Amino acid sequence: MADFDRFDRCEVTCIHEEAVSAVRQVMISDDVAQSLADIFKTLADSTRVKMLFALMHRELCVCDLAAVIRASESSVSHQLRILRTNKLVKFRRDGKILYYSLADDHVKTLFKQGLEHASHDEAWAAQFLDFIK
Amino acid sequence: MADFDRFDRCEVTCIHEEAVSAVRQVMISDDVAQSLADIFKTLADSTRVKMLFALMHRELCVCDLAAVIRASESSVSHQLRILRTNKLVKFRRDGKILYYSLADDHVKTLFKQGLEHASHDEAWAAQFLDFIK
DNA sequence: TATACATATGAACAGTTGTTCATATGTATA
DNA sequence: TATACATATGAACAACTGTTCATATGTATA
To answer: Helix/strand/coil (H, E, C) string of chain B?
Structure first.
């Protein structure tokens, strides 16, 4: 670590010292980088993407969610736990049934940005961006 | 699949048919869900998050990038390939040195949204959101 | 209290991912 | 053309992730 700070690792000969120290000044900590990565990790699975997209439309129970995305209820339940842990969804109970819904609007915004990046100038994303609003 | 479409799987008894078919109407395709998941997957690693955050500040060569985030040059090079493939970074060559930079502003926006979700009412994200602009 | 049922949880397993180490590629300079 | 060096790539391996299957929990109703 001290070695790193002095830029004196002999294997590395091309370092632009000013550039490196300038960027280090503003660099995020490992913890923050990890938190950020964790959010994206939560969204980095097509099953969860489909679940969140469905919940964007309306609240749904576990079993409906499974039917909508054509997945097993067990799988959906496992994934819901991940979404719950990461505060992306909330739920209310009505008898035996749990109704899940989006915790807030962050997911919508993230999906919007994600689709805009994915689509570039392609047209297929237009209707979904439109739906997201 | 026909079974699914008719909602007649005997194991599933709690389906709200109207809800399920309503959401299916607007549901994204598997391909779109996968594309969206792939974008987030690209951002779902703290090494890549740090690399992108560094490149948000200024363009850097592979070796500088490695020094900034304290990772091996080989690892950084592997990760850069992933970022290149997913069109998040671009590069220019100057002699033997390759300078990498962000491909566009989508990453900034995604990080901003991600941090806002992660931070909720916590203060630690303020300076980074401020830096991102 | 017994039964049914919606959902949750745990263990197991295959598939994926990130790092390291060794080696290859491509560019500049002697 | 030979050497140095910045970067890329491939193979190998450990760590992680998502699904399935079996089982548990919790709630309503008979």
So the answer is: CHHHHCCCCCCCCCCCHHHHHHHHHHCCCHHHHHHHHHHHHHCCCHHHHHHHHHHHHCCEEHHHHHHHHCCCHHHHHHHHHHHHHCCCEEEEEECCEEEEEECCCHHHHHHHHHHHHHHCCCCCCHHHHHHHC
Question: In the sheet where B97-102 sits, what is the strand order?
Answer: B60-61, B97-102, B89-94
CB-CB contact of B64 with A19 (8 Å): yes
Candidates 1.10.10.60, 3.40.50.960, 1.10.10.10, 3.20.20.30; CATH matching A36-132: 1.10.10.10
> A61 in contact with B at a CB cutoff of 8 Å?
yes
Residue B128's pLDDT is 66
| pLDDT bracket for residue A8 (50, 70, 90) | very low
What CATH number is given for B43-132 in this structure? 1.10.10.10
Q: What is the pLDDT of residue A118?
A: 81
pLDDT, position B14: 77
Domain assignments of chain A as residue spans, ordered by start: 36-132
Contact A61/B12, CB-based, under 8 Å?
Answer: no
Find the CB nearest B27 among A24, A48, A54.
A54
Residues of chain B with Cβ-Cβ distance to A71 below 8 Å are: none
Q: Which nucleotide in the DNA or RNA is closest to residue B97, CA to C1'? A: D6
Task: Give strand D nucleotides closer than 7 A to any protein Cβ.
Answer: 4-11, 17-22, 26-29
**Torsion sign across C-alpha atoms A124, A50, B115, A58:** positive
In the structure, what pLDDT confidence band is assigned to residue B8 with cuts at 50, 70 and 90? very low
